[in-house]
Amino acid sequence: METTMKSRSNLVVSYITVGGIVIIVMMIFGILMLLAQGGVLDLPATSFYQFLTIHGTGMVGAAALAAAGVMWYFLSHYVDLSKKVMSINLVLFLVGVVMVIIGVFSFKYASSWTFLYPLPALSASAWGTVGALLYLFGMLILGIGFLLFYLDSGRAIIKKYGSLAKGLGWDVISGKKSEKDAPSGAVVASTMVTIVNITALTAGATVLIMNIINVINPSITFDPLLAKNLTYAFGHIFANSIIYMGVIAVYEILPRYTNRPWKSSKAFLIAWTMSTVFTLIIYTHHLLMDSVMPNWMLIMGQILSYANGLPVLVVTAYGALMIVYKSGIKWDIASGLIYMSMFGWIVGVVPAIVDATIVVNHVMHNTKWVPGHFHMYMALGACAMIFGFMYFLAKEDSNMKTNMLDKIAFIAFTLSIVGLSGSFLVSGALSTPRRWATHIPEWMAPAVFGAVAGVFAVLSVTVFVIHFVRYINKRNKVGAKEDFKDKKLA
Amino acid sequence: MVQTVAWIVSLFFMLMVVAVFSFVAWKSKEKREYEPIKKKWYKARTFYGITLVSLMLIITIYTLRELPYNQPVYGAGNDPTIVDVEALQFGWNMSQTKFLVGEPVEFHVTSKDVNHGFGIYDEEMNMIAQTQAMPDYTNKVYITFDEPGTYEILCLEYCGTAHHLMKTKIEVK
């Protein structure tokens, strides 16, 4: 069993390490963009938009990879997952990343990670066919890897529990099975992510192929509104799934630290079914400024975006607070980051819900308000879950101690992400457009503040990743010694 | 201004979240039996859940009363000025750029090439309205300018490497 656990962890640590390192590099691009917007750095506009493209693509891809590692680690305690598929996903991820990097930096491709049709083909001569195809095929390959990953998780869940519906605990909700036999939070969350991401990746692959065809032969055209719907269905779901994979770490780690069980109640299962449905259909809140969309879809976009806050506000976050309250929990970096991640998620949900209000969106859509809320729940939420898991794994596997630097990094990370996200929100309230290479003087100060906060954030994350790499080294040394002992005994 | 209201509302609820998480973290040092806590907190959750749903319902109903998609009802003899707007990399073709205070205006916005965003900014550079500019489709913005001045149109959807240069001015007298 130990051998299985160790080899399983090898792949998991590869996912987390690659994810962590890519996140650091992407943070640096983020800082450079903010410095350029703040008037501190003279960055050519073409470079700015290349950085924008790589930053978005890399952040979502790397965080998704690391979060998939977290999901795999805990889900494999309950079902039999394929290591081969996990390895293929990693290889395809790396191949995709290399293609994207070459497309962006060698062929000046800069469509932003949303690649809104027909921008990949119509760049006003800023980039050519090769760059666009490298990027789009790179994304497609990356997506295929993830699709295989979720098909495997779906297969394993169906094999063990009978169906994906049972993985979501519908037999418990309907009363056919008692609450004590309900699937664990890790299984329920994994089932949800499997369902939504297979859908998202199918939509993404479709729109990528549409763009590829259009790039190769511009006379073949598609409906731009359909393409936009597919793009946001993919982007919204896939990006949000990161947090739903990361939260598995919260479900698994907090009970260990508090010695309190976190069982799947009916309310818990209903909340996850709600999250599954809402996550699949609320992407229309990205299209609130497309009045040609059926109005009922846009109104539902607002209503369901509000409703989507309920499962996390009433069940998951509430459960996390309840389990920690008067628990005598022993705080360390792992538990601190995990607790902080729930805070980051909830605090980011607030401006997100506000922005999903049509009358607000009318004057705040595509301003920096949007990165303001998603940097909160992605960086202080989803990424904190991943970093918390890194510290948890290091402690669980190696008893590695943390030092003062780790504590400082934890505090600096929290404050800097609050500062960074706050600076974006202030910019949004000032109507600063997002994705602009330059700013007028009135918009510059928050950008500079955000860049300074970003520097502290990247230093903190570097400390987190170094801690994890130190753990891998220690683990490898112990592993090598044990292998040597085993050989001697044999 | 909508932006100020959005900011204050967000700040209020975000500070509430800070207060709750800080309180629980502070109380986490004590150690008590879990069962009585669960019993008490589950009761509180019912109240909290109902309050939250009610609050969301009220805000939903209030904010959905008037939507930017709805064409205003124009009085007799007060027909709107229709402005055809075509976005293109990296500029704007507009059939009219001069308007009067109090004159109802409809911007019919489309695009010649890729997706763009049509954002109207007042003299203090606060956004007052926007819509997407899409090829093959026409989105509409209904607006009546209350103040005279020079307004700016900014592109609000990333459209290529000169996206930030895509702006123009309109005059309101």
From TrEMBL, chain A:
List the transmembrane segments. 12-36, 48-75, 87-107, 127-151, 186-213, 233-254, 266-283, 303-325, 337-354, 374-393, 405-427, 447-469
- Signal sequence interval, chain numbering: none
Q: Domain named Cytochrome oxidase subunit I profile: which ranges?
A: 1-490
Sorted alphabetically, which SUPFAM superfamilies does this protein's record hold? Answer: Cytochrome c oxidase subunit I-like
Check the record and name the Gene3D superfamilies matching this protein.
Cytochrome c oxidase-like, subunit I domain
Q: Does the keyword Cell wall biogenesis/degradation apply?
A: no
> Which Pfam families does this UniProt record tie to the protein?
COX1
Keyword Transport tagged = yes
Swiss-Prot/TrEMBL keywords: Electron transport, Membrane, Respiratory chain, Transmembrane, Transmembrane helix, Transport
What is the protein's given name?
Cytochrome c oxidase subunit 1
Question: Looking at the record's lineage, which domain of life comes first?
Answer: Bacteria
From TrEMBL, chain B:
Q: Known InterPro entries for this protein?
A: CcO_II-like_C (IPR002429), Copper_CuA (IPR001505), Cupredoxin (IPR008972), NosZ/Cyto_c_oxidase_sub2 (IPR051403)
Compartments where found: Cell envelope
Q: Where is this chain primarily localised? A: other
Q: Does the keyword Metal-binding apply?
A: yes
| Parts of the chain that traverse the membrane | 6-26, 47-64
Q: Which UniProt keywords apply?
A: Copper, Membrane, Metal-binding, Transmembrane, Transmembrane helix
Every copy of the Cytochrome oxidase subunit II copper A binding domain together lies at 78-173
Entry-linked PROSITE patterns: COX2, COX2_CUA
Q: Catalyses which reaction? A: 4 Fe(II)-[cytochrome c] + O2 + 8 H(+)(in) = 4 Fe(III)-[cytochrome c] + 2 H2O + 4 H(+)(out)
The reply on keyword Metal-binding is yes
Its biological purpose is as follows: Subunits I and II form the functional core of the enzyme complex. Electrons originating in cytochrome c are transferred via heme a and Cu(A) to the binuclear center formed by heme a3 and Cu(B).
Q: State what protein this is by name.
A: Cytochrome aa3 subunit 2
Organism listed in the record: Virgibacillus litoralis
